[in-house]
Write a structure and sequence with these properties.
The protein has helices at 2-18, 49-52, 58-65, 71-74, 76-83, 100-109, 122-134, 172-182, 203-208, 213-222; strands spanning 90-94, 114-119, 140-144, 157-163, 183-194, 225-231, 239-246. By secondary structure, the protein is an alpha/beta fold. It has a single domain (34-246), classed as 3-Layer(aba) Sandwich (Rossmann fold).
Length: 247
């Protein structure tokens, strides 16, 4: 009874903010105010503006994200293996987008586990909610994050996964602080992002991605994580996969 009340409150709060989004499913989500230092934005201004549009055409992004020519989609099974996710775990897919990794995680953790599909885009969460309902997937909860926080309770998640999203963190220090708090002791952070190598990477990546792998690794370690290692994914030509643990 109390669980259902909290779940309804979370849904009401979400609708009040977005005007249209209802979150799946029935598990409550707490959205605490995160007491973190202020920080100037590091990403190009407006990098996430298109995702905040309540008229976002999700079908367009499904066509971009869920296609075999996109290496993080083609390599999804190998990436899933690298994450080491087990039945019963709680996983957060930060920057869930259209939710294809969230669905893989939900299947892997099983009925005893749970997945939080975290995104800044209300329309993506609405799509994940609808798709989960149609597919009768009952262990995914959509979470509307902010540009500074993933808005998950402290010590609540075993694994946090972010794919081609780190470069969209407008305030990486604050977002990483919220990720660190949300992870359980010893919890894992998996980061996939684009290799940014001047003179080698595509012009789009150089202009769109603010930092290379070494900078990303240092920022995460400076946020209190231990670097575990890099996993070689054979399908990756433009991406890398790094693993960290909460100290």
């Amino acid at each position: 009874m109390l669980r259902n009340i909290f779940a309804r409150l979370a849904i009401v709060a979400a609708v009040a903010v977005t005007g249209s989004v209802a979150f799946a499913q029935t598990e409550p989500v707490v959205s605490p105010t995160d007491p973190v230092p202020q920080q100037d934005a590091t990403d190009p201004p407006g990098i996430n503006d298109r995702f905040l549009d309540l008229n976002l055409d999700v079908s367009e992004w499904i066509g971009r994200f869920e296609i075999e020519s996109r290496e993080v989609y083609a390599a999804r099974e190998r990436v899933l293996d690298a994450c080491g996710i087990q039945p019963g775990m709680t996983v957060a897919d930060v920057g869930a987008g259209t939710g294809f990794y969230s669905r893989l995680f939900a299947s892997t953790v099983g009925e005893s586990g749970w997945v939080y599909a975290v995104d800044i885009a209300p329309r993506f969460l609405e799509h994940i909610n609808t798709q989960s309902h149609e597919d009768k997937v009952e262990n995914i909860t959509g979470v509307l994050c902010s540009e500074r926080s993933i808005r998950l309770p402290p010590n609540s998640v075993d694994v946090i996964f972010t794919c081609d999203t780190y470069h969209h963190f407008e305030f990486p220090q604050q977002t990483l602080a919220s990720i660190h708090r949300a992870l359980k002791p010893g919890g894992r952070l998996i980061v996939i992002d684009f290799e940014r190598i001047p003179g080698k990477s595509r012009e789009f990546i150089i202009g769109h991605v603010r930092a290379g792998k070494e900078v990303v690794q240092k920022e995460i370690v400076d946020a209190g994580f231990r670097f575990v290692g890099e996993i070689n994914v054979p399908q990756f030509e433009e991406n890398y996969l790094l693993r960290f643990s909460k100290q």
